[in-house]
Amino acid sequence: MSNPIATLLDNNRAWAERMCEEDPEYFKRLSDQQNPDYLWIGCSDSRVPANQIIALPPGEVFVHRNVANLLHHTDMNALSVVQYAVDVLKVSHIMIVGHYGCGGIRAAVTGGECGVVDYWLHSVREQYNHHRHSLDHLPLDDQIDRMCELNVKAQVNSLCRTKILQRAWQRGQQISVHGWVYGLSDGRVKDLKCTVTGLEQVETLYRIDRIQPSD
């Protein structure tokens, strides 16, 4: 009987040998430093590989993934990734990338008992409830795809409301936050045209500079 883990290790050895044959300096360059311009915040779905989708080699994209590509302000994992990318790596672009047909979005829209992930997806359910009047006339699959877009836009807003991004903008750091959705059926990325490039684009209520210091 075959051992799937042994197969993976064999695949790794064959891949490493092939890379060294094609480019003897490949692993040396990777190990010297990490200097990406991009942070990708995407879904954990195995069909959405960040580097392959935008045709960039390892070392060019810093990646964080979770179910339904969410940015919760209580998620220390995601916030640590963002802070490292912004403050240490000095990335220039952050892409929040959803994908059509997302299972997490479907679970939030259709309901049911999904275990612990129900807590994780609570904010998506609230979004769906907020937009339900404009979605009810659509077939279920179209509702889910539309929610994938709305969710990405909500996460762009959520990220831009963090002090990490706002302080970087205040000190003059050039960072743009983009919202994308990937199509599993055609491999194309759709730009949702919700890019934020500075503090002045953040709603006043969520800006850290809205309260002036007293004299």
TrEMBL record:
Binds 1 zinc ion per subunit. CDD domains: beta_CA_cladeA. One of its GO terms (molecular function) is carbonate dehydratase activity. One of its GO terms (biological process) is carbon utilization. Zn(2+) binds at C43, D45, H99, C102. Pfam families: Pro_CA. Its EC number is 4.2.1.1. It comes from the Bacteria. Its cofactor is Zn(2+). Keywords: Lyase, Metal-binding, Zinc. It catalyses: hydrogencarbonate + H(+) = CO2 + H2O. Gene3D superfamilies: Carbonic anhydrase (3.40.1050.10). Coiled coil: none annotated. Belongs to the beta-class carbonic anhydrase family. Reversible hydration of carbon dioxide. This is Carbonic anhydrase. It comes from Vreelandella populi.
